[in-house]
Amino acid sequence: HQGVRGWVSALYVALDGSVNSLAISTEVVPIPESGGVYVAQDSAGAPVTVRAKANTSVRIRDAASIFGEQVGTLDQFEEFTVEGRNSNGAWYMFTYQGAPAWVNSSYVTLIEGTVIDLPIR
Predict the structure, then answer these.
(1) Is 76 helix (H, G, I), strand (E, B) or coil?
(2) CA dihedral of residues 110, 111, 116, 121 (deg, nearest 10)
(3) How far apart, in Å, are the Cα atoms of 36 and each of 3, 7, 33, 115, 118?
(4) ∠ Cα 73 52 37 (to 5°)
(5) Nearest partner of 38 among 79, 76, 93, judged by Cα
(6) From first to last of its 121 residues, what are the pLDDT tens digits of the chain?
């Protein structure tokens, strides 16, 4: 969609065929050195910014889970810089009021950068 590759939970889609006919992804995000942080770069080595906007009013949590404590809300169309994702890409991490916060990726649209540009946190 809109030139952005991404992942969607199987809970939210209906296949028109067999799951066995789907391609298997071998996409890998590099693991940073111990104590380091992975910073996405383009082919020229320049840092990549990943930005998103909320599709609707959505809860912000302190963990990448519906069981994380709600720490705030993003308003519909509110934009933010995404700093990471969880291992399956279902949650995006960003800084909210000076602390790491998480939002479910199904409620936001990336408007700059791609999922592969995001480090796993």
Answers:
(1) coil
(2) -60
(3) 30, 26, 5, 20, 15
(4) 95
(5) 93
(6) 444 455 666 777 777 777 666 666 555 545 555 655 555 565 666 666 888 999 999 999 999 999 999 999 999 999 998 989 998 889 999 999 989 999 999 999 998 888 887 888 8
